[in-house]
Write a structure and sequence with these properties.
Layout lengths: L4 H17 L12 H11 L18 H15 L4 H12 L14 H27 L10 H4 L20
Length: about 170
């Protein structure tokens, strides 16, 4: 007969682990001062996470984002203004760190690129539609079965001066 002890031990461990997981809570903000934490969140919502790239450092859980949030807290506690903090981050990581980069020569592609792509797409569409209008109606005839069927036989018409070679 089997010993029921291992099942009871496993069931007991599962019960203990389930009970411990109910006590899990979200981590409180690191800053003791709620004004500093609110200001840090406002600034970090304007900065891109360099690891995730599609999240702000406020939303990211990457180690770099956590470090940058802590650095922002320390800069706020040292008395720096929001603009000084943004300037420091831009100097250190470039305009890419800003979700709203300034309009200047190095970021012109970011600002004008989407509009240029849209104009290119509309221009291509207009060109294709005009070319299509100039084609005759027979250009839009449906293909026959012989055109699309790969198994269709192609008639063989030998040239008239070809020599006939009998099968051996």
């Amino acid at each position: 007969m089997r010993n029921p002890m291992p099942r009871q031990v496993i069931a007991g461990l599962c019960f203990v682990l389930a009970a411990l997981s109910t006590h899990a809570v979200e981590a409180p903000p690191v800053a003791a001062n709620p004004q500093i934490e609110a200001r840090m969140m406002a600034i970090s919502n304007e900065l891109r996470c360099l690891v995730c790239q599609n999240q702000t450092i406020a939303d990211s859980h990457a180690e770099l984002a956590v470090d940058l949030r802590q650095e922002i807290r320390e800069m706020i506690a040292a008395g720096q203004s929001d603009q000084q903090i943004r300037d420091y981050m831009t100097e250190r990581y470039g305009d890419f760190v800003l979700y709203r980069p300034p309009f200047k020569a190095s970021t012109m592609v970011l600002w004008l690129g989407p509009a240029l792509l849209l104009l290119l797409a509309v221009g291509t569409l207009i060109r294709v539609l005009r070319r299509r209008q100039s084609l005759g109606a027979d250009a839009f005839e449906p293909e026959t079965d012989a055109d699309t069927d790969p198994d269709a036989t192609i008639p063989f018409n030998p040239p008239e001066n070809a020599r006939h070679v009998p099968n051996r």
